[in-house]
Design a protein that fits this description.
By secondary structure, the protein is an alpha+beta fold. It is built from three helices and 13 strands. Strands 11-12-7-13 form a four-stranded antiparallel sheet, with helices on one face. The protein has a three-stranded antiparallel sheet with strand order 1-6-5. The protein has a three-stranded antiparallel sheet with strand order 2-3-4, with helices on one face.
Length: about 180
């Protein structure tokens, strides 16, 4: 069996989990609500404060969906209780971000500022001029939003300028060797 799929999901007392028809799962807690349609062959079983995911057979597809389904539901429970965050840093002379209403304006070496609007359910916080915190309940949306922000100006390997994840290290390349050996 899948080692991840076998693990039970601990559900805190303040979290409600509802499984509707067609395996449509709704997880709610403290004003946060996440919904997701799970694979129809997987079955969620609730027992005294925890959830387990059961698979119908040991077929290849069912085995692969077993761990995935368990992880998706566990991320939903974690999202409504704690939430998820990704941190980004802006490196470069004159590169900065500024919050203007519900938009974040990036000045990252283009001739114009780039406006970025956060999707619903995701919060963008600008710390100082060069740090952005992306947070929300849905792990997939937080990661996708952070990736879209990074895509505005990805870090380049020569000077390290651009937008990068806070935990990311940029592998630097050496520049030109110089004019030796030319005739």
């Amino acid at each position: 069996m899948s080692r991840i799929g076998r693990m039970p999901i601990q559900v805190p007392a303040n979290v409600t989990v509802e499984v509707g028809e067609d395996n449509h799962v709704v997880v709610e807690s403290g004003g946060r609500r996440l919904e997701r349609a799970l694979p129809p062959q997987m079955k969620l079983v609730r027992e005294e404060g925890e959830l387990r995911v059961e698979r119908p057979s040991d077929g290849r597809e069912d085995r692969s969906l077993h761990g995935l389904t368990r992880t998706l539901v566990a991320n939903m429970v974690t999202g409504v209780t704690e939430g998820f965050t990704r941190r980004l840093e802006i490196n470069g002379v004159g590169y900065r971000a500024q919050k203007m209403g519900d938009l974040v304006m990036f000045q990252v070496g283009f001739s114009h500022p780039v406006a970025f609007a956060s999707p619903p359910g995701v919060t963008l916080v600008v710390e100082g001029n060069n740090r952005i915190v992306v947070s929300g309940a849905d792990k997939e949306m937080v990661g996708e939003t952070a990736a879209r922000i990074r895509r505005i100006r990805p870090p380049e390997p020569y000077k390290g300028k651009g937008i990068k994840y806070a935990e990311e290290t940029i592998r630097r390349k050496a520049g030109k060797a110089g004019g030796k050996g030319k005739k």
